[in-house]
Amino acid sequence: MPAAGDILVALFSFNEGVKLKRLFQRFPEERDYDILVVDDGSTDGSYEFLKSLEVHLIRHDRNIGIGRGIKEAIAFARRQNYRIIVIMAANGKMQPDEIERLTNPIMNDRADYVQGSRYLEGGRSPHLPLFRKIMIRIMTAGINFLSGFRGTDVTCGFRAYRLSLFDDPRFNLDQDWLDKYEMEFYIHYHVLKGDYRITEVPVSMIYPETRKNYSKIKPFVGWWSMIRPWIYLILRLRK
Predict the structure, then answer these.
(1) How confident is the model at residue 219 (pLDDT cuts 50, 70, 90)?
(2) Three-state secondary structure along the chain?
(3) pLDDT at 216
(4) pLDDT, tens digit (0-9, with 9 covering 90-100), for 20-53
(5) pLDDT digit string, tens, across residues 158-183
(6) How many other C-beta atoms are found inside a 10 Å radius of the C-beta of residue 131?
(7) Hey, which of 74, 100, 186, 209 would disulfide with 229, CB 3.0 to 4.6 Å?
(8) What pLDDT score was predicted for residue 129?
(9) Distance CA 123, CA 120 (A)
(10) What angle do CA 169, 89, 184 make, to 5 degrees?
(11) Greater confidence, 98 or 150?
């Protein structure tokens, strides 16, 4: 197994099948980070494929949600004394050769949280469906309004965190209501309120040309999952 180092790249997979296998073909053999995959109850043979690789693995016996996976990945990274964790989907839309863009600002002590953006110069999102494009713009504008942050793509799931952030007691990642998409935005809120340093970097989000099966986010339910941390935390309904 890989030895603990400075950087852990955490991938989150649920029935990604061929996409997962193609993604691992794009990871360089020589790399300065370790890989953890959280398999969220896949039933398509993905987990059997992952067991053949030299990566760290966490396995759920049923599908729970990416928020639970992120919590477990952060806990694993802290136990193993990593300094940085990169959050990355296993569906092939995010590019392994761009990981360094996310980690460099933290390694160079210019940021505590790095948000990927497909809208900065150098970023791209070919074949992005129109409905998704509109919702990204609406979500980004709304979160900017609520938080005062001037981000361009707050829904992009390609991110990096300095793990010492989670020494701050305001982060309570063990709450069950954070098990879905809430976790990423819960962290984003508390980073902003804690006056930590956030920066954006350009990344690519490559969508399938068919514009089908491009996301597991369910309409309305998934978007509510992203919005409610802001409502709950601003109104102090949750901590």
Answers:
(1) low
(2) CCCCCCEEEEEEECCCHHHHHHHHHCCCCCCCCEEEEEEECCCCCHHHHHCCCCCEEEEECCCCCHHHHHHHHHHHHHHCCCCEEEEEECCCCCCHHHHHHHHHHHHCCCCCEEEEECCCCCCECCCCCHHHHHHHHHHHHHHHHHHCCCCCCCCCCCEEEEHHHHHCCCCCCCCHHHCCCHHHHHHHHHHHHCCCCEEEEECECCCCCCCCCCCCCCCCHHHHHHHHHHHHHHCCCCC
(3) 63
(4) 999 999 999 899 999 999 999 999 999 999 999 9
(5) 999 999 999 999 999 999 999 999 99
(6) 10
(7) 186
(8) 86
(9) 5
(10) 25
(11) 98
Amino acid at 74: I
Give yes or no for residue 203 having a pLDDT over 90.
Answer: yes
Q: Which residue type is seen at 211?
A: R
Mind listing the pLDDT tens digit for each residue in 91-108?
999 999 999 999 999 999
With respect to residue 239, please indicate whether it lies within any of the assigned structural domains.
no
Residues in the chain: 239
Q: 117 with 144: CB under 8 angstroms?
A: no
Evaluated on CA atoms 191, 39, 209, 180, the torsion sign reads negative
Q: Which residues pair with 60 in a beta bridge?
A: 40
Q: Which domain holds residue 156?
A: 7-234
pLDDT at 236 over 60: yes
Mention every residue, 6+ apart, whose C-beta is less than 8 A from residue 142: 227, 230
* C-beta separation of 24 from 13 below 8 A: no
Asked whether residue 197 is assigned to any structural domain, the reply reads: yes
- Domain with residue 65: its CATH number is 3.90.550.10
In total, how many domains does the chain have?
Answer: 1
